Amino acid sequence: ISQREAGSTYRFYTPEINTRALERFEIEQELRHALERNEFIVHYQPVVDMNTGTITGCEALLRWNNQTLGAVSPGRFIPVAEETDLIVPIGEWVLQTACEQGRRWHEQGLNLRLAVNISAKQLRRAEFPDTVLTILRNTGVDPASSSLTMEITESELMEDAEGTAKLLKNLQARGLSISIDDFGTGYSSLSYLKRLPVDTLKIDISFIRDITRSHDDAAIVKAIIALAHSLDMKVVAEGVETREQFTALRAIGCDAAQGFLFSPAVLAADFEKLNGRCFTPQLS
Ligand code: C2E
Ligand code: MG
Ligand code: MG
Ligand code: MG
């Protein structure tokens, strides 16, 4: 190692980076015991139908409250879980927990579409389809009633698109729905859309944020909706926070929306209280 490289290597270890490396290390250590210590909980965020204003489903979002680190956001721990493959057992637990909840809601007469985030690390496991089908069987969720959606991010779908297409077709044939999460952020060719068995596009929050102020963002969202509809897909807008965004999205034909305007992700019991509410641009 040359003098110069040694110098730059030395400079790499700034206190700030040390702190970050330490934090990541702590998260990893704590994450290894999080399942057995029952530190996870699944919250549910409503998905609102733009035409009726009613809640037609929800997205399961993982929450982690650690004994020493406190509440850690998914943005911090999910990447660590993915790098360490801990996402495989953790993701399986989320799926199991969400399906158990979906089954209870179904028994209460609530017919909700349940969306669960699936990491590429889970998807690439040879046993993944069996794991999903076993969970559905054990929890009594009927995949044929098409009530379970798997959300996969655009960038993750793009790695090995051929293999993924085959796998997803297999799951779709058994009644599961597929949704592309954070759509528009993957910088990918659109031609893959016709090869993948996709039911729904979730437009990333970054395009929704300025939709009422930015002509460009509005044009992009309009184009995504037109594209999706012409391919027989539904569109969900992520991160709807204002009435104005709601109205604008409704006017351009967006099918459904999620966001703080309606509700953040909440405990199952609180989600039940939201159910039956009608969200219209005037009332909400
Ligand atoms: P995502 O799947 O795109 O989920 C949407 C994120 O946007 C959630 O953040 C949600 O709380 C947030 N959100 C919803 N409405 C609004 C809004 O109106 N404004 C703003 N600013 N944000 C809003 P969260 O829960 O922190 O999750 C972040 C990401 O972590 C998720 O993005 C997903 O990629 C990942 N994640 C969460 N739970 C799981 C899980 O069980 N498995 C996997 N593999 N990933 C998960
Ligand atoms: Mg998602
Ligand atoms: Mg998203
Ligand atoms: Mg996201």
Automatic annotation (TrEMBL):
It comes from Sulfuricaulis limicola. It is found in: Cell membrane. The chain holds residues 689 to 972 of 972 of the full protein. Residues 24-279 form the EAL domain. The lineage of its organism: Bacteria, Pseudomonadati, Pseudomonadota, Gammaproteobacteria, Acidiferrobacterales. This is cyclic-guanylate-specific phosphodiesterase.
